Amino acid sequence: MENKLVSSWWKNVQSLPESYKFPLDQRPIVPLKDSSPIIDLTTHENGGYGQPAILEQIIKASQDFGYFQVINHGISEILLEETIGVLKEFFNMPAEEKAKYCTGDPNSKCKLYTSSYNYQNEDKHCWRDTLAHHCHPLQDYLPFWPEKPTHYREVISAYSIETRKLITKILDVISEGLGLEKGYFGGELSKVQMLSANYYPPCPDPNLALGMHSHCDPNLLTILLQDSHVYGLQIFKDGKWIAVEPIPNAFVVIIGCQLQIISNDRLKSVVHRAVTNSKETRICVGNFVIPSSDCHIEPASDLVKNTTNIPAYKPYQYKEFLHTYAINHGDFEAVLQSYKL
Ligand code: OGA
Ligand code: NI
């Protein structure tokens, strides 16, 4: 796998290899301009994120779009720059250095792979490499993280702690907005946190390639940090692809499938993908909040307790959902349909 990493060979090719050329119906088309909600999280004294304006905006965006961007979220710009910087350094290391993390072992605690977990069996490959590892609780996973670049662990620890705080605050607002008890999404529903950093080098033919297939996020909630000015993330809304504007220092918040199900369809998950470009490398750092694999999931009982609100989904364990997600290749409609009542 190590010599397959696109970060290690893209400079040596002039044209896109055949195995990266997607069929016509999957190729990127010119997307629409972004009109996604941008929510300013600046908190005023005594306000907190629960203040009505922020709460209403978050709930409305989660209902209407399934994603939104947050600005003024309180995480220092220096830390965000260092995070993108250290990940760029990681992917720019010599192939031999990166090889240590390309074990191919699905149980490995730190994975570096190219295109997707399914590289061996897929028809076409995606133009990206991904570094993925757990990051909560930190002390359990830190020993498995890359040792190089030398400041990787220090920067990504600080980043993981700060993003977890932000995610917890956003989840608290969502539980309040849905009328659920405070801390509803704490505990098993958000026990696991993973960092998954995607590296998309310049691509010789962005019109034929994809960086990441169209998918929905199977987890509870995702936040993405994008490179400050490089386009690549697209959202599928009302039958059309929309290019998400990269806003410096903002996070893109994506409602995962579990939030749609627990909210009994009040909040919507969103289908998205990544495209490439021919000029600039793009990094997108995902932080995924994930239920524990044994976690029991169903629409929140407070949201389905009267005859006008009957449960739309049957109960399941999160690991069953992940299995269904894998066999349906992340196809949003197919996966949710499997749990519909
Ligand atoms: C993801 C994802 C988007 C991107 O990692 O699930 O949607 O632009 N990433 O890398
Ligand atoms: Ni995603």
Describe the structure.
Helix 2 (52-64) packs across helix 6 and helix 3 crosses helix 6 (152-178). This protein is an alpha+beta fold. The longest helix is centred in the middle third of the chain and has 27 residues, at 152-178. The chain has a single domain (21-339), classed as B-lactam Antibiotic, Isopenicillin N Synthase, Chain (Jelly Rolls). The chain has helices at residues 6-9, 52-64, 77-91, 95-99, 138-141, 152-178, 257-262, 318-327, 332-339, and strands at residues 38-40, 67-71, 110-114, 129-136, 192-200, 212-215, 221-226, 233-237, 240-243, 251-255, 271-274, 282-290, 296-297, 316-317. A hairpin with a 2-residue loop joins strand 8 (233-237) and strand 9. The strands form 3 sheets. An 8-stranded mixed sheet has the order 1-2-10-7-12-5-4-3. Nickel (II) ion (NI) is lined by residues 215, 217, 222, 272. Residues 196, 198, 212, 217, 224, 232-233, 272, 274, 284, 286 line the site of N-oxalylglycine (OGA).
